[in-house]
Amino acid sequence: MKIAVLPGDGIGTEIVAEAVKVLSVLDLSFELEEAKVGGAAYEAHGHPLPESTLKLAQQADAVLFGAVGDWKYDNLERALRPEQAILGLRKHLELFANFRPAICYEQLTHASSLKPELVAGLDILIIRELTGDIYFGQPRGRRSAPDGVFAGQPEAFDTMRYSRPEIERIAHVAFQAARKRGKKVTSVDKANVLETFQFWKDVVTEVHAEYPDVELEHMYVDNAAMQLVKAPKRFDVLFTGNMFGDILSDEAAMLTGSIGMLPSASLNARGQGLYEPSHGSAPDIAGKGVANPLATILSAAMMLRYSLNQSEAALRIETAVKSVLAQGLRTADIYSDGTTRVGTKEMGDAVVARL
Amino acid sequence: MKIAVLPGDGIGTEIVAEAVKVLSVLDLSFELEEAKVGGAAYEAHGHPLPESTLKLAQQADAVLFGAVGDWKYDNLERALRPEQAILGLRKHLELFANFRPAICYEQLTHASSLKPELVAGLDILIIRELTGDIYFGQPRGRRSAPDGVFAGQPEAFDTMRYSRPEIERIAHVAFQAARKRGKKVTSVDKANVLETFQFWKDVVTEVHAEYPDVELEHMYVDNAAMQLVKAPKRFDVLFTGNMFGDILSDEAAMLTGSIGMLPSASLNARGQGLYEPSHGSAPDIAGKGVANPLATILSAAMMLRYSLNQSEAALRIETAVKSVLAQGLRTADIYSDGTTRVGTKEMGDAVVARL
Ligand SMILES: CC(C)[C@H](C(=O)O)[C@@H](O)C(=O)O
Ligand SMILES: CC(C)[C@H](C(=O)O)[C@@H](O)C(=O)O
């Protein structure tokens, strides 16, 4: 089994180092191979996703990814900016199924912006379609407006689109995931305005016929943004397209108060996956040894479960993380009075010690 | 001066009746003319926005709008569903500038899902572009996918587009509004993924050159969804496109904990406007006399200020609403221990009494 390790930029290198440390004490045999991605790859090779990095990722069973991005690349042309690497990996590896759990850990309930009673015990699984929608839809670009009130004026445009098989395959993923959990899927759309999401709603409803044991509800995206704030625990599996999923998964992650704890997985039909923390590259704290490595360590656990068929090892890591929290160890982002503040390395070491 | 009164569906009729009551005691001379819209218009005339209603709205100086929608119309074809009325009014009246304040009233801080210290004193103005973007972009529809991995498969698609003059005019509105407030604009985009919003960002940056006294920051929409939860008070004017504005304005409204208090205005270049509460038609409580009329009453105040040039009268209404809250009167949605629960009519009467 081969794991491509792509630390990326900012805190990426620090947090991935801890996850690698954790993986290496598990007594499993896999090969790790590291490559540059994002800004780091641009500096070294002139492109955020060099051919060699892409090839490594394609040949691996799984990709362990840190984070990419830094303000200093803001003025590069879009095709060379760090985040193009992550979009490119998703596209080329066909990682259409993104899993983003929004979990509120018992000991961290107080860290949420929300009142504790609203988030205590929160456990939502957000499933976001990741290779379609307006993220990749062609045509797109700039032109002179071909029609409408502003015909002839300069305009920019993008195309939102979803085909039936794209919706079907992610709907199956959502219903199957719900089966293993609370058996409820909330499909989020904007069918009252968008053709694409009326179609989404229609196809999801059809696929649902194969899952009579799972409850399906449809919700407009604006309402979903509200319900997440009002009563997040009403959700079990929240399932949506690429664009809405981007917004809602970040909103939900922040609601937990501990985005530094949240892993994610992006899978293709062959079980290959890319695993990364839900948070970003945080250039402001990079290199200071204070970043929280737990989201990345938990992403490594997801990798073991989903792509490497090692669910026992995954569980061991997750249990170790919980026990480190119970021990009172906290990185700066989740620190509160009465707990022990530790750095990135110490947190990684503590997880290793528990294993 | 002529006001078109369009109560609509659900609680629309009840709450608009209270706003009309308030307007009628102000000793101002305007003509009110009522017409059906939404489901009510569909029942009566077979269309959610009949020609006669549209004409009335076009000829009026302002439209006082209740709310539209009911589950019972869910299976109508899209063109006949109630919300098409609101989309049609926006389009035909060219109401491109939508103002949605997200304010947390002192006495209602506890009603928020967020911890009180995060929302106490919250006062954000959300400015949403309302006639462009993927809401109206052509082409759209269903077809066989013309290209891509799923070429030949059935797909649905929509077009996101913004032309330079559309972005310019709403940017001017945002900067001018910020000048009268905290002098800070946060322009929300997804320039890292979408051509449309890279263009948005570029044009907004250009327009900003005319407003050196106003601070401009750019923020990605996913980050904005997070920052609203984490630190809503960091925003002054939050300014974005139609689709993102739909989602973020609802998220922000819910954060205040009292969406039943929040008015909105949608204006065109000629100062004509449509005024409506930020909340929906709430068919579950329709006809029970328990809905909160204050968002509609405050929308009437916005109408006096923005379209009818009666800012003194607007302020009188706003002061009356605050004093009714201070008096301890509350409809069910904002009720808490120690306050006095009242119905829709009593709340309207209380505002009238304060005038
Ligand atoms: C970096 C960006 C392109 C990306 C996205 O929008 O998908 C990120 O926000 C995410 O959610 O993984
Ligand atoms: C009813 C619907 C079409 C509308 C919108 O999406 O704009 C509503 O959600 C709103 O925000 O006014």
Automatic annotation (TrEMBL), chains A, B:
Binding site for substrate: R90, R100, R128, D222
Cofactor(s) required for function per UniProt: Mg(2+); Mn(2+)
Domain Isopropylmalate dehydrogenase-like: 2-351
Pfam family, any one: Iso_dh
Binding annotation for NAD(+): G280, S281, A282, P283, D284, I285, A286, G287, K288, G289, V290, A291, N292
Classification via InterPro entries: IsoCit/isopropylmalate_DH_CS, IsoPropMal-DH-like_dom, Isopropylmalate_DH
Segments passing through the bilayer: none
Record site: Important for catalysis: Y135, K190
A molecular function GO annotation: magnesium ion binding
Reaction(s) catalysed by this chain's protein: (2R,3S)-3-isopropylmalate + NAD(+) = 4-methyl-2-oxopentanoate + CO2 + NADH
Localization (cell): Cytoplasm
Any single biological process term in GO: L-leucine biosynthetic process
Keywords, alphabetical: Amino-acid biosynthesis, Branched-chain amino acid biosynthesis, Cytoplasm, Leucine biosynthesis, Magnesium, Manganese, Metal-binding, NAD, Oxidoreductase
EC annotation from Swiss-Prot or TrEMBL: 1.1.1.85
Gene Ontology CC annotations of this record: cytosol
SUPFAM superfamilies noted in UniProt: Isocitrate/Isopropylmalate dehydrogenase-like
Gene3D superfamilies in alphabetical order: Isopropylmalate Dehydrogenase
Main location: cytoplasm
Residue positions binding Mg(2+): D222, D246, D250
SMART domains: Iso_dh
Cofactor, free-text remark: Binds 1 Mg(2+) or Mn(2+) ion per subunit.
Family listed: Belongs to the isocitrate and isopropylmalate dehydrogenases family. LeuB type 1 subfamily.
Function of the molecule: Catalyzes the oxidation of 3-carboxy-2-hydroxy-4-methylpentanoate (3-isopropylmalate) to 3-carboxy-4-methyl-2-oxopentanoate. The product decarboxylates to 4-methyl-2 oxopentanoate.
Subunit details: Homodimer.
Alphabetized PANTHER family for the sequence: 3-ISOPROPYLMALATE DEHYDROGENASE
Name the UniProt record assigns to this protein: 3-isopropylmalate dehydrogenase
Organism: Caldimonas brevitalea
Gene that this sequence comes from: leuB
